[in-house]
Q: What sequence folds into this?
DNA sequence: ACATTGACTAATT
DNA sequence: TAATTAGCCAATG
C-alpha cells in the first residue's frame, strides 16, 4: 500500500466513494478523470478502464461499486442482478427493460 | 521472457 | 439495436 501503484487504487476508491446516490460513472470516465489528475500532479499515467475494474475487483468492497457501470450502462455481468436492485432502490434512471443505466441522465462528474 | 486473463472500449458489420 | 473484432494495460502463472 505504499507503492504508487496502490495509490492509484486508492484514487479509484476515493473517486467512486464520491459518486452521489442516483448517479453513476463509467469505467472509461473514471480512468479519464484519474489520468488528468495524475498528469496535473505529476504522477505516473493511469493505466486505463481495465485498471479501474481491477482495482474494484481487488478492493471494491466498502465503496458503492454498483454506481460504476460499463460504457453500455450495464453493470458487470457477475454482479448485474445485485447492482441493478441497488440502483433501482436509489432511483437511478434506468432503461425501460431495467437492465441498463441511462447514462445521458445519470452520468456524474466530480465537478458537481 | 511468453502466454493468458480480466468488474473495458470503440469501431465495424 | 445487437453481435463481432481488434486494441488496450497491468497482473499472474
A:
Amino acid at each position: 500500500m505504499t507503492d504508487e501503484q496502490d495509490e492509484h487504487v486508492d484514487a479509484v476508491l476515493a473517486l467512486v466513494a464520491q459518486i452521489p446516490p442516483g448517479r453513476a460513472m463509467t469505467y472509461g470516465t473514471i480512468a479519464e478523470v484519474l489520468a488528468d489528475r495524475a498528469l496535473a500532479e505529476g504522477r505516473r499515467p493511469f493505466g486505463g478502464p481495465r485498471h479501474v475494474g481491477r482495482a474494484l475487483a481487488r478492493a471494491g468492497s466498502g465503496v458503492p461499486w454498483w454506481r460504476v457501470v460499463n460504457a453500455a450502462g450495464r453493470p458487470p455481468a457477475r454482479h448485474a442482478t445485485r447492482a441493478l436492485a441497488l440502483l433501482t432502490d436509489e432511483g437511478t434512471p434506468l432503461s425501460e427493460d431495467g437492465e441498463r443505466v441511462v447514462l445521458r441522465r445519470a452520468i456524474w462528474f466530480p465537478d458537481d
About this structure: The two ends of chain A are 29 Å apart (CA to CA).
